[in-house]
Hints:
Elements: H1 3-6, E1 14-16, E2 25-27, E3 37-40, H2 53-58, E4 61-66, E5 78-81, H3 85-96, E6 105-110, H4 115-128, E7 133-137, E8 140-143, E9 146-148, H5 157-169, E10 174-178, H6 181-185, E11 196-199, H7 207-210, H8 213-224, E12 230-234, H9 238-250, E13 254-259, E14 266-274, E15 277-284, E16 287-293, H10 298-313, H11 318-326, E17 336-340, E18 343-348, H12 353-364, E19 371-375, H13 385-396, E20 399-402, H14 412-420, E21 429-431, H15 435-445, E22 451-455, E23 462-465, E24 468-471, H16 474-481
Parallel strand pairs: 2-3, 3-4, 4-5, 6-10, 6-11, 7-10, 11-12, 12-13, 13-14, 18-22, 19-20, 19-22, 20-21
Antiparallel strand pairs: 1-5, 7-8, 8-9, 14-15, 15-16, 17-18, 23-24
Helix pairs in contact: 3-5, 4-10, 4-11, 12-13, 13-14, 15-16
Amino acid sequence: MNLEQILTCVDIESRTNFSNVNIEQICYSSRECGPNSLFVAIKGYRTDGHDYIADAIQKGAIAIVHSSELSDYQDNIVYIKTPHSREMLPILASNFYHHPSDYLTTFVATGTNGKTTSCSIARHIFSTFGKKTALSTGVGFFIGDETVKVDRTTPESLDLQHFLRQAVEIGSEYFFMEASSHGIYLSRVAQTRFDCAAFSNLTHDHLDFHKTMENYYQVKKSLFLTDPPYTIINIDDPYGERLAGELKERGKSKILTYSFHKNSDYVLSDFQQGNWQQSFRFYGPNIDTVFHLPMGGLYNAYNASAGIIYALQKNIPLSVISTAIETYTPAFGRMNRIHHNGYDILIDYAHTPDGLLKFLTGVKGNTKNRLISVFGCDGNRDVNKRPMMGKIAYDISDIAILTHCHPRNEDNIDVLNQVRTGFPDEDHVHVFADRVDAIKFALSLAQPGDSVALAGLGHYRYVERNGQFLPYNDEDTVRQLLNLPKA
């Protein structure tokens, strides 16, 4: 595509050595650059892409988009200066990939917890109805029979637009995706047209980044200010109730609410669970039925609701929705269960206070005897949630085992000690600096009727420590320790 087409609607301050060259690739990492590529230099929180312009040119970049003044301009390179290169990246990407979201019906879920399961259930309903779909979550990008591993909940805008184009090219009708607060704030979802936006909840998380809950809320709210045709909101969450009220004052989207406890468009009731199954009644306009979901945890009834409501708006038959709910298989790292020698091992990404509370409560509700929990907190992330999570594990677990998640560049022992302060009685928590040792100890304690809940890493296939990404996965560890075949 020629450069002039790619620059359509881009805010340009200046052009140097401009020529309408043909661009074969756009990159924001110099490592990815090849011949005839356009390199977009983005100033990040850890590194500055402007420092890698020379490397990008060496690898074949023939045009540079930048927002900082440069000390060197090469004669044979085109330079485009813009006020904010990160905000321009989604425009460049959407232009390059021919505005792919215009050809898809896209459902986006946001909230602190539940995004992956909500999107996965919604996609399963539409796939069961025979619709061709694609899915983008923190677990991966799923298109046809292919799974692409991702390194963040919401892909960088360039990658997202590429995913959307791939979905269009294989004939997908519907695209389901997560939008994290970082993804929204950093313009990753800009230029993506949404048919429906769903809000699950807002609880303590990412305050190392957003600083206050109000800032966090306003970032989430901004996603809905794009006025998608449908908005689906859990109003049992206080921020969801506030969001619904504020959006109704705007009067642009069709706002649909759901709740167990409040007056809402769709009402859930009669929740029952046991033996890792649950049922709940769901009624509202033209529906009054009982759904059966093969997962424990009240929170998963909430997670299923957005997809059910959206399917109803798209006239998917109730019989199809019910079948899809009954046959849903949990996403990798989300309430995954291994049954062994009469006890159960549950693996989940629960990494926030609210997420840990819901996960452990859900496991407890399906456990006959003792709940043994293994959990931890990330290094270089919000320190305030550490004692909160310690207290939650202490209150719900019969046996609590504390270990690491991603230490990153923080001293692992310091993180563990901060979590321990949340235990009213520190003698009643077992602490292991090594996660494998913690899981081995938990499994050694397990007896028939017990549950071992492993929280914090879920789908991750690595642990980040001192700048290294070391291969690791909870499920692989359990299977190795118990001599079970790989999944």
